[in-house]
Amino acid sequence: VSLRSAIVTVGEELLSGATVDSNAAWLGRALSHLGIPVRQRFTVGDRDDRIEAAVLEALELAELVVVTGGLGPTEDDRTRPAVARALGRPLDRDPALVEALEARFRGRGHATLPPANLRQADVPRGGHALPNPRGTAPGLWIPAEGGRVVVLLPGVPREMRALFDAVEHRVREQFAERLEPVHSQTLHTTGIPESVLAPRIEEALGGLETRRGVEVAYLPELTGVDLRLSVAERDGAGAEALAEALRLVEPVIRPYRFEAPETGDLVEAVARQLGERGLRLATAESCTGGGVSARLTARPGASAWFLGGVVAYDNAVKTEVLGVDPMVLERHGAVSEPVACQMAEGVLRQTGADCAISITGIAGPGGAVEGKPVGTVWWAVAFRELGTDVAQTGVRVRAASAVFPGDREAVRIRAGQAALRDLHLQLQERA
Amino acid sequence: VSLRSAIVTVGEELLSGATVDSNAAWLGRALSHLGIPVRQRFTVGDRDDRIEAAVLEALELAELVVVTGGLGPTEDDRTRPAVARALGRPLDRDPALVEALEARFRGRGHATLPPANLRQADVPRGGHALPNPRGTAPGLWIPAEGGRVVVLLPGVPREMRALFDAVEHRVREQFAERLEPVHSQTLHTTGIPESVLAPRIEEALGGLETRRGVEVAYLPELTGVDLRLSVAERDGAGAEALAEALRLVEPVIRPYRFEAPETGDLVEAVARQLGERGLRLATAESCTGGGVSARLTARPGASAWFLGGVVAYDNAVKTEVLGVDPMVLERHGAVSEPVACQMAEGVLRQTGADCAISITGIAGPGGAVEGKPVGTVWWAVAFRELGTDVAQTGVRVRAASAVFPGDREAVRIRAGQAALRDLHLQLQERA
């Protein structure tokens, strides 16, 4: 049986939502990476009975229990005594920790250690302190029955993260022979819904999940679906099983896949394509209102491949700044193929970019017209033909449309993603 | 005894840390606000036994148990059957839900409902569906023994939030006589940090907190600090105590306060000011890259008061599209008072708007120059003088600057908020 961990996060501010529990996610990743995935997480307030109960339950589910928070110097900080009680141990005041706390306070110009801080030198019997380079509360490593371990870490994220190195070191010692490496890979897709993707993946794998222990997880967002394949190492064949799974799913996801190892965002893939080829992009946005260009420029270094754009929200901006033909606007309406094309061409010429995307649509809740329900969007991708002068004719532009589901925000996000996806595909074609 | 709630969030991606559990914090705030604070939170993977055990334990701790996640259409989605088992109820397929799902899929152009989606029409016996305006998974309200209730909500944050209105409505019905009335008001501020605001508020209240049971909470975000004053009703004097507190804090927050009862966003206040006076706004953005205009257009009906803008990320776009003087750019640099002013004037003239804001800065991590560290931002607000022709001279423009702390995202958000705050103040002055 593989090792499992459990997390107990402590603090009323987590329950009330005043603080988002970012430690829990960080620990989840760190523990998975260590090969001790998290089985369950408990979040409790600053109360001895709830902390004690959660730690006892966690010890039934997992070999490694990580408790964060409640190690401060105030009366509210209950983790040390509650864990001591859960393990049936007394709290001993550690003279070396008292001395370290006193040195720390003297070093910061205080004459004496506040008495409340003495609590931070208390250790459940049998436990070992893990020095905290960034704060007063040491971490604690407490061996429990049956080879289990309870680790206490401060709730301040930067202190907790700094202490985790010491935890990792001890985990590798303690559980060395039982740590199974997990082979995994996440594949990013866009343009195919989970309900269509999942049966195709299942068919492609043809039972590999049960035959070779390959786990498949789908992580859907408005912009696409991430597919995570993982195999726990058992008999030395884990890496090979993962490789087989990747081979089988590859043809299914090829038209939808993009590579974004850092961020998981399609913008990363587009930025790489543009950067490698020295191409510069511009945007012309109507219904997305600047959202696509904000997303592009959220990426540091965007100035290397992004020139800027025009938010042509009002039709007057479409005609006067982008040069869309007012007759075409009147005849076809702002949400139409020719207007999308003229917007992309217009911003290309205005900015001197190498390529451009445009988006015009009805994000709702109002604005629907006959034949164009809320969610109707046209977008276009324009490329300056190589070696031609943009002021002359050499622009090639292709448009597409869809009716996107969801509310205003969802339509805007989906519309931006669709335009970026077409840009990504056309950059691939032209590679 | 007051009512308590418990939260169970479901999903392997939460345990592995692939996703930060933002739903849990949001629900914590919403439930506290309703008067049913959260007593404990459980996070479990997509496994029937863990979901079932967590729900049973939650029911021992709380009258209201909210479960999020695991309501999707795939085999991985285990919440419905696990909760049915925890409550000892069979799952019934609800024909009305099947019909609604079929209609939704037809509306999106699919001929038939994928069979997997039929699972989303299953309801533990005795439960009631809560329609989901933003997705296929309905919420479920399931009365349990002893007046307890289990509520199932989808894990997609925007769907969960949209469904919470229906939950709140039913909670108020179900627990009416046990909910303590709380008088409260939230005041929105921007432009003053919590560390400066809090002592001034305490001084202004002069002990009213203890004398009359007024609770003060600060909810800081990058865009400002919300101040929440609340008084639990005890002896019929709650409303009066709240009114006294509001009178006392009003002079402190007056320069920073804005009114945004629907969204809490300064954009709401600016939209109201512009809409009431029939003024139309344009934007010229460099370092914010379209983020301000995306924020403005996130508001439905923005076309009544927003014309559009130019994302002048590259200097060539500043000069060629906005008409910034290249000599001024070279002499003062892109992040400077004259360039901010010329950007705002330029977009005002280009679009024919009544007022405009511009932002130019160094969002980082790179880009710092001597005398202009990362975080340096100049912004400007321009108004067409009433009765003048914008093509001629009548533009009045004022600029300001700051060095904002934080990473790229924080600098961009703070810069946009600062420009909107100055627009808000100048619209107030001109009222």
Count of β-strands of chain A: 17
How much of the sequence lies in strands of chain A comes to 15-25%
Q: What class would the helix/strand composition of chain A place it in? A: alpha/beta
- Oligomer state of the chains in this structure: homodimer
Proportion in helices of chain A: 40-55%
Largest interface, chains and sizes: A-B, 84 and 89 residues
Major β-sheet strand ordering of chain A? 2-1-3-8-7-6
In the predicted model, the low-confidence regions of chain A spanning at least 5 consecutive residues are none
Question: How would you state the average pLDDT of chain A, rounded?
Answer: 92
Radius of gyration of chain A, in angstroms, nearest whole number: 28 Å
- Report the span from N to C terminus of chain A: 48 Å
Largest sheet of chain A: 6 strands, mixed
Backbone shape of chain A: elongated
Number of helices of chain A: 15
Task: Describe the structure concisely.
Two copies of one chain form a homodimer. The first copy, chain A, is α/β, with parallel strands linked by helices and 431 residues long.
Describe the overall structure.
The structure is a homodimer. Chain A has 15 helices and 17 strands. With about 425 residues, chain A is α/β, with parallel strands linked by helices. Chain A has a six-stranded mixed sheet, with helices on both faces. In chain A, helix 2 packs parallel to helix 6, helix 3 crosses helix 4 and helix 10 packs parallel to helix 15. At the A-B interface, helix 2, strand 2, helix 3, helix 7 and strand 10 of A face helix 1, helix 2, strand 2, helix 3 and helix 11 of B.
